């Protein structure tokens, strides 16, 4: 099945004028009367929960070098989940920032990036594992280190998935917010160690009811000499629905089609 399938009925047009100017400036101060939830996660933590359509999730780096490994699934149909390949090829990109959307296996818009202070988030690098953490920073488990044991995204993802009746087969390729990976002329990926700063944030608007799972563990290509994942703040707020001229909707014709596919769920 091609990305953003199924095709729209005959006569449906996806030729709304594309944005000609810069993306809208991010909203730095969230309206207090719209804020519905707030939590600070330490480095190495995990979080999962439902985000309803019409809400926006803000993730804020609380220290330089933060990373958030992130997946999302349709809350009412878990087989419809984030698809990295279709997200990237449909939008002709190898990075994520304002204007881009996260696309599902069914060609639907899951989340829209409506605000971003950083300009580059990594969709390619994957997530770390216990073996990788041990190779880089040595073994340290709960029995010996108690709450300071060295966590990894792979195990954290599986724990959170299990809370929702899901398992290993439901763990798909993830996004790494606040991290940047670039390719050299030979196609090798390189981690940019100086990228996110304390206070950087990204806004993710839910276009359908979602199950969101993320961890604050290290990026798998992180070159830090010592283990030390950084804390992140999450906030949920009620946001306005996307208009016909919404920046993310009109950023590319493929985006417009993905929005159409999502809106069929709510017709």
What do you see in this structure?
With 267 residues, the protein is an alpha+beta fold. The protein has one domain (41-266). 17% of the residues lie in helices and 25% in strands. It has six helices and twelve strands. The protein has helices at 84-91, 130-137, 142-145, 153-162, 247-250, 253-263, and strands spanning 35-41, 46-51, 55-61, 68-74, 101-103, 109-116, 175-177, 181-183, 189-191, 201-206, 210-215, 232-238. A hairpin with a 5-residue loop joins strand 8 and strand 9. The longest helix is centred in the last third of the chain and has 11 residues, at 253-263. The two termini are 23 Å apart.
Strand content: 15-25%
Report strand order across the widest sheet: 1-12-3-10-6-5
Roughly how many Å is the radius of gyration? 18 Å
Characterize the overall form.
Answer: globular
Domains counted in the coordinates: how many? 1
SSE pattern, N- to C-terminal = EEEEHEEHHHEEEEEEHH
Unreliable stretches: 1-5
Distance between the termini: 23 Å
> What's the quaternary structure here?
single chain
The helix content is: 10-25%
Number of strands: 12
């Amino acid at each position: 099945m091609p990305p953003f399938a199924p095709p729209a009925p005959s006569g449906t047009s996806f030729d709304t004028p594309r944005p000609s100017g810069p993306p809208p400036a991010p909203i730095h101060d969230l309206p207090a009367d719209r804020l519905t939830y707030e939590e600070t996660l330490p480095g190495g933590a995990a979080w999962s929960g439902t985000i309803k359509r019409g809400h926006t999730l803000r993730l804020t780096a609380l220290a330089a070098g933060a990373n958030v490994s992130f997946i999302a699934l349709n809350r009412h149909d878990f087989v419809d989940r984030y698809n990295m390949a279709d997200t990237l090829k449909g939008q002709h990109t190898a990075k994520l920032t304002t204007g881009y959307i996260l696309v599902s296996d069914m060609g639907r818009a899951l989340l829209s990036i409506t605000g971003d202070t950083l300009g580059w988030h990594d969709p390619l690098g994957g997530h770390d594992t216990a073996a990788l953490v041990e190779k880089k920073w040595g073994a340290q488990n709960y029995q010996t280190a108690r709450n300071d044991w060295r966590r990894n995204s792979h195990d954290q993802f599986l724990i959170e998935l299990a809370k929702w009746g899901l398992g290993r087969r439901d763990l798909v390729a993830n996004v790494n917010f606040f991290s940047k990976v670039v390719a050299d002329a030979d196609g090798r990926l390189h981690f940019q160690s100086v990228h996110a700063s304390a206070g950087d944030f990204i806004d993710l608007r839910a276009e359908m009811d979602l199950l969101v799972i993320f961890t604050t563990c290290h990026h798998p290509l992180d070159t830090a000499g010592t283990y030390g994942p950084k804390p992140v703040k999450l906030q949920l707020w009620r946001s306005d629905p996307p208009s016909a001229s919404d920046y993310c909707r009109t950023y590319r014709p493929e985006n417009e089609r993905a929005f159409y596919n999502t809106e069929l769920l709510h017709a």
